[in-house]
Design goal:
By secondary structure, this protein is of the alpha/beta class. It has helices at about 10-20, 20-40, 195, 230-245, 300-315, 340, 345-350, 555-580, and strands spanning about 50, 55-60, 65-75, 80, 85-95, 100-105, 110-115, 120, 125-145, 150-155, 170-175, 190, 200, 215-220, 255, 260-265, 285-290, 325, 365-370, 385-390, 395, 400-410, 410-420, 425-430, 435-440, 440-445, 520. Helix 2 (about 20-40) runs antiparallel to helix 8 and helix 5 crosses helix 7 (about 345-350).
Length: about 600
């Protein structure tokens, strides 16, 4: 609501000079109306503070770029403040519906304009988008119109490709196998071919013939999110490389999925790819799906990587040593492939020394949430719940109720869920596919007086029990002080028709203390790499509150304004009758003389 006031200057000055008390009441009256007009409507959503994207320098082919990854963006604007000009913004967004994002762009020539972000490719929840600018820009702010779960973006120089050549305009998914003739090396049988993961035909031969003599390992720097299948992730990377960077095809020769499978990238490994700027010739690129700056790659992924590296070493006669097999960051200034993957590369090469004869994965992963009352209660994560596989391992849930078991043998498992002052629960889950991630979440109910179960009266969760009424909690959060707080995930688990899904993005894993029975403790899902979550905030309205958030207008303000208005009118009539309006300009009351301080004994009151 906007309220306009119009007062004639000369009349206002006259009133202030001759009727100062009326002036004070008038000022107070208008101040109340101003706050009523300017403070937020209690039913209106708070203004969102922009998230500043944590940009990092990197390389895309031979281009210097900036990139950032954000989790739990929601509807918050995303502010990009790079230290170099840019002309393109390429994005992979995760949202339930295709976003209609706009951007306020500040150009280097001093002008600004609102631009519409173009979505070039979409699957169920993954979308590739871009913003191609006609001149260099210095900063921009993205404004999503649908909640974003995750956002990966890249800022680079002028788009080099044909803007009209997008994956949507290319021919349909490759349907026929490639005719491997003329000495072209076919990928091994354990590699998922392009036609099976849904690659689009690039309508041309990409790269030039070469004779590989070295290998480079990468990470794709996207979200560590098992909810999205590896095949869908590879599709989005192909779209990102073609539509967002203007490349001929996906840049990597092979990609290693979190499902423990290897996916064919470029059609031929004996033609150059696009993965190390200025060093693509005679160099085969293998990309691991995810971001491994902090997150530890799962073992089945490392096994699959060893298998394809072993095959490449055998096929092209490349010795699998750290001189010929390097991480991207050892060939260029970049964090790729992430410290957690790079530190394990030597072990992967040792495993690959047998020529890639590593057996396919034989284990599965089990993850889930423990929540109070209902699985749908996303804010009710039960932390430090003990999740135990009958006859085997056990873990403790994180602050958001999330747990994870890696490398479980296939078959049916019985899982027990326990927490002090909650009723214990159990259930069975069948793990029937090697390399897959299976979800098994469980709601727990608070105990009532007389229920059987573990009780720790020092735990605030037990405060409702009669026997714990006089107990002092050991910690305001009900946790041991040496257990760190973890950010809660915002993305709910969703189980597919095969009963599998995956945990949200997580850049790192934390294992529990060593014990005779190992206790594993998962890192909270969906913490963005390169920094923690940016908190959701609301802007304050100046003059309405001293707090950090906007305060809604109180419903009694209009009534107060009416009362003050009536008092003003009555006061004016009284002043006109008594001549009181001629008093000196003191807003606090009638004229008076200043009283000296009583501390001076020479002055009498």
């Amino acid at each position: 609501m906007t309220t306009h006031f119009s007062l004639h200057h000369s009349k206002l000055s006259e009133s202030m000079r001759h009727r100062p008390h009326e002036t004070c009441l008038t000022a107070l009256f208008f101040l109340v109306l101003f706050c009523a007009a300017s403070c937020d409507d209690p039913g209106a959503p708070p203004t969102l503070v922009p998230l500043e994207a944590p940009l990092q320098h990197g390389h895309a082919g031979d281009e210097d770029v900036l990139h950032a990854s954000l989790a739990d963006v929601g509807l918050q604007p995303v502010e990009l403040l790079p230290d170099m000009p840019f002309q393109r913004v390429s994005m992979i967004l995760h949202a339930e519906t295709p976003p209609g994002t706009t951007a306020l762009v500040n150009f280097a020539d001093g002008t600004s304009s609102v631009q519409t972000v173009e979505v070039t490719w979409s699957s169920a929840t993954t979308h590739v988008a871009r913003l191609l600018l006609d001149r260099p820009a210095l900063s921009l702010t993205l404004h999503p119109d649908v909640p974003l779960d995750e956002l990966f973006l890249e800022l680079g120089p002028e788009f080099r490709g044909d803007p009209l050549r997008t994956v949507r305009r290319l021919r349909a998914i490759e349907a026929a196998p490639v005719d491997w003739k003329g000495g072209v090396v076919a990928p091994p049988d354990f590699v998922v071919p392009r036609r099976e993961w849904g690659a689009v035909d690039p309508d041309r031969s990409c790269g030039t013939p070469h004779a590989p003599d070295r290998l480079t390992v990468h990470h794709t720097a996207g979200a560590n999110n098992d909810r999205i299948s590896s095949a869908e992730t590879v599709q989005s990377i192909q779209a990102f490389h073609i539509d967002g960077r203007g490349w001929c095809d996906v840049g990597y020769h092979f990609l290693v999925g979190r499902d423990g499978r290897v996916y064919q990238g470029r059609r031929w490994s004996d033609r150059t790819g696009a993965h190390v700027g200025g060093q693509n010739e005679d160099n085969v690129g293998v990309g691991f799906l995810g971001n491994f700056v902090e997150y530890v790659p799962p073992q089945n992924m490392l096994d699959a990587g060893a298998r394809i590296l072993g095959w490449l070493g055998d096929t092209y006669g490349i010795s699998l040593n750290r001189e010929l097999v390097r991480g991207h960051g050892e060939r260029a200034a970049t964090l790729c492939p992430g410290a957690q993957l790079l530190s394990r590369l030597e072990g992967v090469l040792a495993a690959a020394g047998g020529g890639g004869a590593i057996d396919p994965p034989t284990t599965a992963r089990l993850v889930g949430f423990v929540r109070e009352g209902s699985i749908d209660n996303s804010d009710g994560g039960v932390d430090r719940a003990r999740v135990r596989i009958e006859g085997g391992r056990e873990v403790l849930t994180g602050a958001n109720g999330y747990y994870v078991f890696d490398s479980l043998p296939l078959g049916e498992v019985t899982v027990h869920f326990e927490r002090s002052c909650y009723r214990p629960e159990s259930g069975n889950r069948t793990l029937d596919t090697a390399g897959e991630t299976f979800w098994f979440s469980m709601p727990l109910q608070r105990m009532d007086d007389g229920d059987e179960g573990p009780v720790d009266c020092a735990d605030p969760a037990c405060a409702h029990l009669t026997q714990c009424e006089d107990a002092e909690p050991s910690d305001p959060h009900g946790r041991d002080t040496d257990v760190p707080e973890e950010p809660a995930p915002s993305q709910e688990e969703s189980e597919g028709t095969n009963g599998t899904a995956a945990e949200p993005s997580q850049p790192g894993e934390v294992t529990g203390p060593a014990a005779s029975t190992p206790t594993e403790r998962p890192f909270a899902p969906r913490e963005p790499a390169g920094g923690g979550d940016v908190p959701f905030e609301a802007t304050s309205t100046a003059g309405c509150s001293a707090s950090s958030g906007a305060v809604p207008a109180h419903p009694s303000i209009p009534m107060l304004a009416l009362v003050l208005g009536l008092a003003l009118a009555r006061r004016t009539r009284s002043q006109h009758a008594t001549g009181f309006g001629q008093s000196p300009a003191h807003c606090s009351g009638p004229p008076h003389r200043e009283r000296p301080a009583r501390s001076d004994p020479s002055v009498r009151s």
